[in-house]
Write a structure and sequence with these properties.
Elements (H helix, E strand, L loop, with lengths): L1 H6 L5 E5 L7 H17 L3 E6 L2 H7 L2 E6 L2 E7 H4 L2 H8 L1 E7 L6 E8 L26 E6 L10 E4 L8 H25 L10 H4 L10 H35 L11 H14 L11 H21 L8 H25 L2 H11 L9 H17 L3 H7 L3 H6 L4 H23 L5 H13 L3 H25 L8 H21 L1
Parallel strand pairs: 1-2
Antiparallel strand pairs: 2-7, 3-4, 5-6, 7-8
Helix pairs in contact: 6-18, 8-13, 8-16, 8-17, 8-18, 9-10, 9-11, 9-12, 9-16, 10-11, 10-16, 13-16, 17-18, 18-19
Length: 501
């Protein structure tokens, strides 16, 4: 039907992709005969992509043999389709001989040759991934027919992903990426505590001759500013990494930690702790961040249960819809609690919901680092998996990825990071959207680079936003979420219209 539809348009060139795939021998012969007749009788130029070397030998009189994107040999089929060339491209010893009755070459694979002689090539039709991160793929034949009234021809070339990637190049890029973004993050951490609405004398702040209780500069630096900067770095890293994972998992560039309702669950937990004056302290951490983290975990559990109810694995569409519905429900409950709460508690909760990094001790930071470190440890095993899942679950499964397990790990790791970040700094908006896209513009889409770069740049981004919030209207401090929304809102709109265009 596809061939007939193309011919009905009186096309001079016919492009076909694997026309004999999944066909029995009878239909393969019919397709080959039909294509040959089209070329000879109707002067149709044929461009056929196939893994079948025998089909290429049947249809074509010229071949261009390619490996890793480079031409190995080109010319008449009889001179190009040789055992030596097949060994160079496929890494296979093959018997190439002229068929007595069919009068064309036939290829019979015999055995695999030593890997060091054909490094980077794999057997025909095979597509596998090595643990060292090098990408290998099977060789794909592209048969290019003649121009009208010309003899048949063909080209044998690598499939879309046959390129052997040098892991040293990846490691070198990773080292430069981490060094560059790490330098920016380190400079932000050093510069931000020094700047503020109140003047600071660093020599007095680090002086051991003045008691700490009498040293105002030391108190400003170590109690008021440094914990806040560290908290901003932790929250920014967690939200940025979670955004990267959610966007790859859901295959949606507009996905963020807010998409699945995790932030809404954390907000509801914090609201309950504030409104009902829960007085619980665990290792120096108050009830609000604890309740916030538990709320985010509960929201994740509900969304995942809804998405996995079909018993066929999770679905990105179901995950997004379940997250949107749950976010709406939890937001309604938050507003209900605000109505019944008194004015003081409502003001405190609204302030928290706008994003607050007013941290005056290191205990909440340490407690947030525990689940965030666990989430980052899971994420460290996901870069290659996220690259494949972002192309589609079917493609990932075809490459040997356990999609259901990978989805669970990705959801849990991203939610742990989100819950820890929200419990420490509140639901700071747009960090999980803005940072991953800026990083991709700078380093590309390889998650081996995107994940560490996003963690470092997310820290720098939120430190800068908090610095603006502390100083732009000093001594009055803006909620850091207001600054991220002002910066992230226009970026979000630009991204949306750029995608629609």
């Amino acid at each position: 039907m596809v061939i007939a539809s193309a011919l009905a348009q009186s096309s001079g060139i016919l492009l076909l992709d694997e026309p004999t795939a999944s066909l029995d021998l009878g239909f393969q012969l019919e397709i080959a005969t039909l294509l040959s007749r089209l070329n000879h009788e109707r002067d149709v130029t044929l461009v056929v992509s196939t893994h079948d070397l025998n089909l290429a030998a049947t249809l074509c009189t010229e071949l261009a043999l390619m490996k890793e994107g480079r031409v190995v040999a080109r010319g008449p089929t009889s001179s190009v389709l040789t055992a030596a060339n097949i060994r160079r491209v496929y890494g296979v010893e093959a018997d190439v001989a002229s068929h007595a009755r069919a009068r064309h070459l036939t290829v019979v694979p015999l055995t695999r040759v030593e890997e060091d002689a054909t490094r980077g090539a794999v057997l025909d039709g095979c597509d596998s991934d090595r643990e060292d991160g090098a990408r290998e793929a099977g060789v794909k034949a592209c048969a290019t027919g003649p121009a009208p009234k010309a003899s048949r021809s063909a080209a044998l070339q690598g499939c879309p992903a046959p390129r052997h990637i040098d892991t040293r190049d990846v490691r070198r890029r990773l080292a430069w990426t981490v060094a560059g973004f790490g330098a920016v993050a380190a400079a932000s951490c050093v510069f931000a505590p020094v700047v503020g609405s109140a003047p600071l004398n660093l020599s007095r702040a680090f002086s051991h001759s003045i008691p700490f209780a009498d040293n105002v500069d030391a108190q400003v630096f170590f109690v008021a500013r440094l914990p806040r900067v560290v908290a901003a770095a932790v929250v920014g890293s967690g939200m940025a990494v979670a955004g990267v994972v959610f966007q790859a998992l859901l295959r949606n560039p507009l996905a963020s930690p807010d998409t699945l309702g995790v932030s809404a669950g954390a907000t509801l937990g914090a609201m309950l702790a504030i409104t009902f004056h829960v007085d619980v302290t665990l290792m120096g951490v108050t009830a609000v961040p604890l309740a916030s983290f538990l709320g985010s975990a509960g929201a994740l559990g509900i969304v995942y249960a809804l998405a996995a109810a079909r018993r066929r694995g999770t679905s990105s569409t179901v995950l997004i819809l379940a997250g949107v519905a749950l976010s709406a429900l939890l937001s309604a409950l938050v507003r209900l609690i605000q109505v019944i709460a008194d004015f003081t508690d409502t003001f405190r909760s609204i302030r928290w919901m706008m994003g607050s990094l007013d941290v005056a001790s290191y205990a909440p930071i340490v407690m947030a680092l525990v689940p965030m470190a666990a989430g980052f440890a899971f994420v460290a095993s996901l870069p290659r998996v996220l690259d494949l899942i972002s192309l589609g679950t079917e493609a990932a499964a075809a490459r040997g990825v356990d999609v259901r397990r990978a989805e669970r790990v990705a959801l849990v790791s991203a939610s742990l990071s989100t819950g820890a970040a929200v419990s420490l700094g509140g639901p700071v908006p747009f960090v999980g959207i803005v940072v991953p896209h800026i990083v991709r513009l700078l380093v590309g889409a390889d998650h081996r680079l995107v994940l560490p770069a996003s963690a470092l740049f997310g820290a720098s981004f939120l430190i800068l936003c908090d610095l603006i919030a502390r100083t732009v209207f000093g001594p009055v401090e803006l909620p850091v979420g207001t600054v991220t929304a002002i910066l992230g809102g226009p970026f979000f709109l630009w991204l949306l219209f750029r995608r629609l265009a």
